[in-house]
Specification:
Distance between the termini: 42 Å
Largest sheet: none
Number of strands: 0
Order of helices and strands: HHHHHHHHHHH
Shape: extended
Oligomer: single chain
Structural class: mainly alpha
Number of helices: 11
């Protein structure tokens, strides 16, 4: 489904769309019509149905998908669409299977109901199972690669690099072995480069990852920056404890 919905656009099409938006703005078109058309805008008109309307539920769903590695803005909408699409698709397959079986031999009503409902329920809960597996696998990967990342950060800082430069280096070097950890550090580097406060970026990372060791690491860096102590010394002690653990 994501591969079918994905539609690549070349640069000339984007320029043409921007030119049409400028013309529409000169004619006094409303702001809603001037929004850039995204890749999955086909589902935007169903957003009230596919997305939770409660802010807390929406935040929880987005956080779960972030921990699974899906950081797109419309990830929640796509997830619920996949649930409904797979549920209905498997339900139709179950109905077809039940009808074919009934045409070939005599079956009970209970068999007809179960052969219809069970595939539909399996299709509906399949995306949820997939996301939970992704969350667990990414968490284990981050926990496995975090001591190596701390050692590399300590080496970079003691070599004279800044904290931002060491984060960029970790994101580059750990890509081959721990891509999930590299994605998190790369996101931190991009947010800091965009001008977001470093303390807020680090706290967002600990909340996004959901690993206790990362939260302790962020607390160590924040306290070191607050009290003006050496980051290298704090990292040396914490990385040694992390390696022993």
């Amino acid at each position: 489904l994501p591969s079918l919905m994905k539609k690549e656009t070349d640069g000339f099409s984007k320029l043409k769309a921007q030119a049409e938006q400028i013309k529409a703005a000169k004619k006094g078109t409303s702001k809603a019509e001037l929004r850039t058309v995204g890749k999955n805008d086909k589902l935007e008109k169903f957003s009230s149905f596919l997305e939770p309307q409660d802010a807390e539920q929406m935040s929880a769903a987005r956080l779960t998908l972030l921990r699974a590695g899906y950081s797109a803005k419309n990830a929640v909408r796509t997830f619920h669409f996949a649930q409904f699409a797979l549920g209905i698709g498997f339900l139709i397959l179950g109905v077809i299977y039940a009808m074919v079986t009934k045409a070939q031999q005599e079956v009970s009503t209970q068999f007809m109901i179960l052969s219809t409902i069970i595939p539909g329920a399996a299709g509906y809960y399949l995306p949820q199972y997939w996301v939970q597996r992704r969350v667990q696998s990414r968490r284990e990967e981050i926990i496995s690669g975090f001591p190596d990342a701390l050692d590399m950060m300590l080496v970079c800082i003691e070599a004279g690099q800044s904290l931002d430069q060491s984060i960029n280096r970790i994101a580059t070097e750990s890509r081959a072995g721990y891509p999930a950890l590299a994605d998190e550090f790369e996101m931190v580097a991009h947010e800091v480069k965009a001008g977001k406060e470093r303390v807020k970026v680090l706290k967002d990372m600990s909340e996004r990852v959901g690993v206790a060791d990362v939260a302790s690491f962020v607390t160590t860096l924040v306290q070191s920056a607050t009290f003006g102590t050496s980051i290298a010394e704090a990292l040396r002690v914490y990385s040694a404890e992390m390696r022993d653990k």
